[in-house]
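Title: Prediction job returns without error message
Component: structure pipeline
Severity: low
Priority: P3
Assignee: unassigned

Description:
Job completed but the reporter wants confirmation the result is attached to the right record. Sequence as submitted:
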Amino acid sequence: MKSAEERIAADVVSLTTSLPVPVPLKRKQCDIEKACEAEEPEADAKFDPVEAKKVKTQVSPYQAIPASGKIVRNLAKAQPVIAFTNEQERKAAVSKVIHDYADLLRQRTATHMGYPYNLAFEFGDLECLLKYCINNLGDPWIESNYGVHSRQFELGVLNWFAQLWEVDQKDYWGYITNCGTEGNLHGILVGRENLPDGILYSSEDSHYSVFKAASMYRMKCHKVKSLVTGEMDYDDLRRLLEENKAKPAIVNVNIGTTVKGAIDDLDRVIEILGEVGYSEDRFYIHCDGALFGMMIPFIKESPLVTFKKPIGSVSVSGHKFMGCPTPCGLVITRSSYAKALSNDIEYLNSRDATIMGSRNGHAAIYMWYTLTMKGYEGFRQDVTKCLKNAHYLHSLLFDAGIRTMLNERSSTVVFEKPPCQAFVRKWQLACQADIAHVVVMPNIDRKKN
């Protein structure tokens, strides 16, 4: 029997074929599970609302109703702001707090596996910029009266992605966002402003920010069923579109779902819209490429996300596959669509069509620096490394008798949720229902143990 190492030695393209989900296997209890059972005998007990009321929760002032249940077991603790009369004691105390926190961050980074953040980055060359408040408020193309900005870097990043997604510079508009959620909020808002009576369609496996957008904008929204892989159920999409074809359609297409890493078939969605009778002026497609939007362009034979197809917008996260010390992202839409949001703001001496007002100018520099230092080939190497390591991890879990799944062209390894909460916390695993996942990023290699 071939080893896991031998099975993933093939070309990455051959690895993108879906592997079946193994049947349930009875496995031996590992030592850490035995230890956890001794420490947490009721960790897997069913939720009891009576017992939940006994849980002491720290309620924020704005919370009308505190959360309850298992999700509140790991409450955050406040770092007190301490008053000192002696300046020397103050500096010594603050220094200790910061150094202790830095040690904690090193420990947590070493055992991070569950969330899609690339922690392998180095921006030492940019430390000299931290003393400046760099704010790119307003339109990226039109400078405001505030002169401490990084628009030149932001435009460089936007043009790089415009080329990646095949849209002419004169035909697009976009900006660097504060996170992937903002990219989704903006993309869906552009769709709503251009099709005011449009209905939003998105699969059940979509990121929660898509449904947050529907709630914020008071949009009618239909959740499309998902396949077991997490990919959109196209038959259900067709059914919903047929039932509501009197109204325009705003469709969110996932370029990698949050939990299972499934990629919706953009071409199939466009085909269904046409077959049901939607002309291109009656639908708007937003592509949520938070993580895999930066990966699939570098995988051979992957479906293309391109503005040569009738899509309205694409968003990605900058702190995920690229790697960045601050949450950030990017959204690009067609300039003809952005006009519906754009307004002159006299106070800024600029135009604005963004969600947020002030925007982190440092993020634009981090992203520009990463794109410049890595280049296309650097990203291609990172993608290849992640896919191979994902298949290696999948093989290890399979060989250990653990039920596991890995989607096509994905680095998200899904497996049965570990019963030990301490194990989940240590490796910072993202869990949903009875499954967990590891998102294999460039900073996660085979030395993790």
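Comment from assignee: result matches the submitted record. The longest strand covers residues 172-177.
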